Amino acid sequence: MTARRVVATGTFDILHPGHLFYLEESRKLGDELIVIVARDINVKHKPRPVIPEEHRLRMVAALKPVDRAVLGDKSDMFRPIEELMPDVITIGFNQMFDETKLAGQLRARNLTPEIIRIGRCPDGDLCSSRLVVQRIIDKRSHDQHHPAPQT
Amino acid sequence: MTARRVVATGTFDILHPGHLFYLEESRKLGDELIVIVARDINVKHKPRPVIPEEHRLRMVAALKPVDRAVLGDKSDMFRPIEELMPDVITIGFNQMFDETKLAGQLRARNLTPEIIRIGRCPDGDLCSSRLVVQRIIDKRSHDQHHPAPQT
After folding, report:
1. A149: closest chain B residue by CA
2. For residue A144, what pLDDT is reported?
3. Domains identified in chain B, total number
4. C-alpha to C-alpha distance for B115 and B89, rounded to whole angstroms
5. Dihedral sign for Cα atoms in the order A119, A120, A121, A122
């Protein structure tokens, strides 16, 4: 019996409990979890990452549920999937993939992994990079206008 | 022979490669690493954390070099150290402890761990929460004034 390989993907800009939940749940679906971390130049559907790709890669690789992390391909998002040959591909609850379309694109390359969408993490506002960034901006802007008394 | 226990401490607000470097280097100094994560109310020497303590705790505990993470004591920073009885306490390169003063405070409680300051992480600007937060604010403020073209 061979190990059941799970592949997860994402930008993982500023690590938060939502990322951890997605990776922990992904890891439970198989025997090993490999994560494809998006290249800086390929993040186009949302603001560019704050943290450069090499650092994002290193932080994801340091998380316990992750067996290995790799950077995505600059021009062909399916190339690392062809190389990794996963049994399962997981999608985060707010990732904008259409499962049916994705399955078709993979089948065109003779790839037939199971595609599983992971549910929403139970921690609400802290499970979204966008909301964490907004929280930082709101909080620090408040701090600048209401500095703590010097003690 | 008993395991050599290392204790590291910090706020770990927005995880970055500097935290990882500090924890990896700390782990190398013994057989197990326990991390004391600062309580929200005890962070007074810098802006309050953006991420609540329970989430900071969970993220630190998820990092590979960390065997266990615990929250600090709300009123007595030395209490968890008395409970954990570390052989080594590590200090981050920019943590504002005076090693001699700290050694004296610990000795007053019959604690005599080795105190080791970990060097600066080699990744410059991305190894400081303050600089990462500044980078987020600068970048997002630039994005708001120079939005990417809609494609």
Report:
1. B44
2. 61
3. 1
4. 5
5. negative
Helix (H, G, I), strand (E, B) or coil at A90: strand
Q: How far apart are CA A75 and CA A140, in angstroms?
A: 37
Residues 70-99 of B with CB under 8 A from A: none
Is B87 within 8 Å of B114 (Cβ atoms)?
yes
In a domain, B55, yes or no: yes
Q: Does A125 contact B at CB distance below 8 Å?
A: no
User: Any chain A CB within 8 A of the CB of B59?
Assistant: yes
Please write the tens of the pLDDT for every residue from A64-117.
Answer: 999 999 999 999 999 999 999 999 999 998 888 889 999 999 999 999 999 999
A58, part of any domain: yes
Chain B neighbors of A50, CB-CB under 8 A: 132, 135-136, 139-140
**B28 lies in a domain?**
yes
Distance, in Å, from the CA atom of A82 to the CA atom of A2, rounded to the nearest integer, reads 18
Q: Which of B58, B64, B137 is facing A137, going by the closest CB pair?
A: B137
Q: What pLDDT, on the 0 to 100 scale, is given for residue B45?
A: 76
CATH of the domain at B69: 3.40.50.620
Answer for the pair B138, A133: CB distance below 8 angstroms, yes or no.
Answer: no
B41 touches A: beta carbon within 8 Å: no
Residue A31 lies in a domain: yes
Using pLDDT thresholds of 50, 70 and 90, give the confidence band for residue B143: low
Residues of A in contact with B50 (CB under 8 A): 132, 135-136, 139-140
Residues near B10 by beta carbon (within 8 Å), at least 6 away in sequence: B19, B22, B35, B36, B37, B38, B92, B95
**In the beta sheet, which residues pair with residue A114?**
A88
